Amino acid sequence: MKVKSYKRQSEEAEELSNVNLSKFRKIQHELEEAEERADIAESQVNKLRAKSREFHRRIEEEE
Q1: What is the sign of the dihedral through the CA atoms of 46, 49, 53 and 59?
Q2: How far apart are CA 56 and CA 40, in angstroms?
């Protein structure tokens, strides 16, 4: 009887472990995608800042 109980507990623990590992991998993937989007947004902001600086520089030169 104890062996069956231990086996069942082991199987339940393994199943829970697999569920948690799956959740972790999903969240990790979502995090990687969010980091990639953040990197792209940061790059776009930097490009716009550079364009803005260049634009203001040209205006000052014309004055």
Answers
A1: positive
A2: 24
Length of the chain: 63
Q: How far is CA 6 from CA 13, 14, 36, in A?
A: 10, 12, 44
Report the distance separating Cα 6 and Cα 39, nearest Å.
Answer: 48
pTM as predicted: 0.70
Where are the alpha helices (H) located in 1-63, listed in sequence order?
Answer: 2-62
**13-55 pLDDT tens trace:** 999 999 999 999 999 999 999 999 999 999 999 999 999 999 9
Structure tokens at 62: 């014309």
As a whole number of angstroms, the distance between CA 19 and CA 34 comes to: 23
